[in-house]
Amino acid sequence: MPDPDTATATAFDPADPPVWDDAFRRDFAALLTWRRDVRRFRTDPIPEDTVTRLLGLAHLAPSVGFSQPWRFVRVRDPGRRRAVLEDHLAAKAEAGAVYDAETAPRYQALKLAGLDDAPVHLAVCCDTATTDGRGLGQQTMPETAPYSVVCAIHTLWLAARLEGIGLGWISIVHPARLHAVLDLPEAWTLVAYLCLGYPEAARPTPELIAAGWQARLPLEAVLAER
Predict the structure, then answer these.
(1) How confident is the model over 118-138, as pLDDT tens digits?
(2) What is the spatial distance between Cα 175 and Cα 193, in angstroms, rounded to a whole number?
(3) Residue 19 lies in a domain
(4) How many independent structural domains does the chain possess?
(5) Which CATH number do you get for residue 198?
(6) pLDDT tens digits, residue range 141-179?
(7) Closest by Cα among 43, 90, 62 to 4
């Protein structure tokens, strides 16, 4: 895999950093709007060089102390994939028990994973034992290491959307079980299990809004001042 910093350096002159215009800012806003948590995938394969390029872009994400604690695990083995799907279905059934009689049927009707059809499965972990970065920035907030991994996931999400590729984050799983299924190193903590593939359809509206599960909160509902 080419070094992402070297690739970036060849694209931009450090003495003349890029300035993004109004058109780019509009396109960036559109990218954020059209980034969706995809559950419905076509089965078409993603070219391997595309997957490598997307992971290289994710590797450019910010990280605390430049520790780069993310670890990407391509899950190709059919048996492991099947075990992940079975765990998801069990976890979904368990999670449904918290809902009342009115909400439970709506929950069960939601499609919450594209594990059957997505061509690429990716487990993203945080290496809690890495010495890269020498612990800078983590002494008082050790949680910044997994936060850094989330930054890499979001970078991957946006980069994938630019290529017309959807990403789905499956959180309804048992992390300890998946850790065993994937035979992960003890120091690697599962942060996300992702599906990547070409979506059946591109939609600017989140599926949970369309399903009537939850509306988007207005900005003033999440903004405070002190």
Answers:
(1) 999 999 999 999 999 999 999
(2) 9
(3) no
(4) 1
(5) 3.40.109.10
(6) 999 999 999 999 999 999 999 999 999 999 999 999 999
(7) 62
The torsion region of residue 72 among left (phi > 0), alpha (psi -120 to 50) and beta comes to beta
Q: Which domain holds residue 129?
A: 38-212
Residue 52 lies in a domain: yes
**What are the tens digits of pLDDT across the range 55-67?**
999 999 999 999 9
Q: What pLDDT is stored for residue 176 in this prediction?
A: 97
Sequence-distant (6+) residues with CB within 8 A of 70 are: 58, 59, 61, 63, 124, 125, 126, 127, 148, 149, 152, 153, 191
The whole-model pTM stands at 0.91
